[in-house]
Amino acid sequence: MAFSVRGAEIVPCPCCGRKLRVIGSRLRKSIKPSGDIIVLNIRRLRCTHCSKIHHELPDFIVPYKRYDADSIETVVSNDSVQTIAADDCTLYRWRNWFQTIANYLIGCLISLSIRNFQVPVDILSVAPQSALQRIGHFVGDAPGWLGRVVRPITNLNLWLHTRSAFLSRNA
User: Fold this and answer.
1) Nearest to 77 by CA among 58, 54, 53, 102
2) Quick one: what percent of the chain has pLDDT higher than 70?
3) CB–CB of 73/84 below 8 Å?
4) With b meaning 16 or more CB within 10 Å and e meaning fewer, what string describes 2-38?
5) What is the 8-class DSSP label of residue 115?
6) Considering just the CA atoms, what is the radius of gyration of the chain in Å?
7) pLDDT tens per residue across span 20-62
8) Contact 2, 41 (CB under 8 A)
9) In a 3-state reduction of DSSP, which class is residue 155?
10) Which run of H or of E encompasses 30?
11) Which residues contact 171 (CB under 8 A, 6 or more apart)?
12) Close Cβ partners of 133 (under 8 Å, ≥ 6 residues apart)
């Protein structure tokens, strides 16, 4: 059984700001902290101007990640990871991914705050010790903070593509 995802708000194309049109859907799996897999029916949208295709993701999905945002957030926040049904290698990759991307996320959040004239004074004067504390200045540290980081960055087409493929060339 798949759950259909339908956004209530109208989001413009992250690339050019024009209108998006529904062109179909696709199934997307997400793994909960308990290890249960939920299947989502995600809408595929095409921009009427630039023709780029986008997928409408719910807030609990992190682009290019199989597990939901709560699972990743728990591990990255160094909360109890005993409740996450994932192997140690996966937990290590999440921590490494966050350490790698944290400064970029902070830069995006600062840029968005400046763009919206909402820069907290203490962000520019004295930066706290950890990346989590700096991110907390923008989105808070209550549960769900990772979703609050992902959404604006993704909706403005600033999310880094983290999947990779290696090609080998025979010389």
Assistant:
1) 102
2) 85
3) no
4) eeebeeeeeeebbeeeeebeeeebeebebbebeeeee
5) H
6) 18
7) 999 999 999 999 999 999 999 999 999 999 999 999 989 899 9
8) yes
9) helix
10) strand 20-31
11) none
12) none
